[in-house]
Each structure stands twice: as structure tokens, then as C-alpha cells.
Design a protein that fits this description.
One of its GO terms (biological process) is lipid metabolic process. Pfam families: GDPD. It is a single chain. The chain is built from nine helices and nine strands. It is globular. Helix content is about 30%, strand content about 15%. By secondary structure, the protein is of the alpha/beta class. Strand 7 (about 225-230), helix 7 (about 235-245) and strand 8 form a beta-alpha-beta unit. Helix 1 runs parallel beside helix 3 (about 125-135).
Amino acid sequence: MNGPFSSPVSSFPRPEIHGHRGCRGLFPENTLPAFQHALALGVDALELDVVVSADGQVVVSHEPWFSAAICRLPDGQRIDPAREREHNLYRLPYNQIREYDCGLTPHPRFPRQHSLPAYKPLLRDVIRSAEEQVLRSSRPPIHYSIEVKTEPAGDGVFHPAPEVYVALVLALIEQEGIADRVTLLSFAPRILQNARVQAPHIPVCLLVEDRLPLAEHLARLGFTPHVYGPDYRLLTPDLLRQARRLGMRIVPWTVNDIAAMHDLIRYGVDGITTDYPDVLQALLLQE
């Protein structure tokens, strides 16, 4: 999907802008500053990842441990990459998680990213901050794409069993009154299966990063999800047509290349997940 621009993007329906981990290309991922800046840029949805702390709180984090690439110990020292999994969020109460910094270490892949003190926030606090910001700006309500990660070997080690994990996330979503604006995302069929049983009214998105046929993915899942979320490099016109025939929305990830953005807009996808919402926003504003 790197061909020349054949027509202006204004000729096609506007896809939703999904800010990946807030706006990872601009601010430290999955932090309050990243989500606040993404909202200021005008994203339609905040995409984020959640894990669970030792005291059962839902924490916004991509890994269930402190990544040595982006986080520092409470004393400011760098984390040894060989020992990063020892800093297991599932074994730490949130008051200790809050003491680590995950914003001061420059991310080598994102040269435009601002470095500033930042911590892993609770999902509850992200939602409340976002809802307050939206209310102040008088913009349309924000949507949330919440990814739940799990591996069978991680049950009881890095996260609860799927039914407990999903129940914790769903309970918080209901408590905060945003259930009608949430999609639960996962690469793991067992997470989406549990979500469908516990809260059939919550849309789910199957994330995909391999080249298995769509029919095989759906057979493993056991039902047709509301949203299909492939790695954008896997998306073809034929795959798009297959998904459309089944009534699924299409939101590919993680798209940071302008030419790829343009091609996906031309394909007519429903949303685009990007680390650079500002780049996608500027492209969509072109005449």
C-alpha cells in the first residue's frame, strides 16, 4: 500500500482517528500527557492497553512489567533489560507502581516524542481525565479502544485468569458510565469469548498480526466480532470485502506512514490506529 496518491482524501469517507497508546509518537505511551494531547489533537478514540496490579486495580500499561526501554526505577536508575520481568505489575500494589517513571527515557523509535516525568495511570483516572477534558472542550464524546493482553502461561503470573481479568475491566467500564463508548480489543480469542459471555452488549475487536485466512481466525474465535483489527500491512481489498460481507468494521493498526494512511482512506476503512494522530489529522484536512 505504498503507491502514489491517485485522488484527494476528501473524495473518500473520513475514517475515525484512533490514538495509539494516546499518541506514542509525540508523548510517552499510555500516560496521561499522551491521552490529553491526543484529545487536544481531535482523536475520535483513545487506544490503550490494560494490566492488573497486585491489589486488583486496572492499570494502563502495554506490558505487565516495567519495560527497560521506557521506564526507570523509583530511584531514577535504569532497569536492567535482562531483569525487567522481575518488575511485575501483577506482583506490585498500585502505590508502588506509581513510583516508577515511564516518561523521562527518550524512545529511540520516536524522535518527536517529548520526554517528561510520567507514570502508569489507573484506567479509572484516564477515563475521568478524558471525560473532563471532553466536557470542557464541548467536543463530541470520546470512544475508548481497550486492549486486554493475555497468554495462558501468564495466568496467575502476570495477570489473572481470563474470566477474572475481563470481569475487572468490564466492572470499571460500567462504574465509569462509558460502556456504550467502549470496544474491547485482544489478540487472544479467550479474552473476547469471555467478554461476549459477560457483556454481550460491549463490542469486541479481534486483533490480527498473522497471515492466517479470515475464516480460520473466526473459526478459532467461534463468532463474528464487531470489529476486525489487522496489522495494516495485511489488509487487502479482498480481505476488506470479506470482512464487510460479514458486517465487521475494519480498524487497522499501527499506521504511521503517510502513503499507507492515504491508501487505507481510499480503501474505505472505518478507523486508523496511529502513533501520530497529528499527521493523520492533517492528511484528512487536505482538500
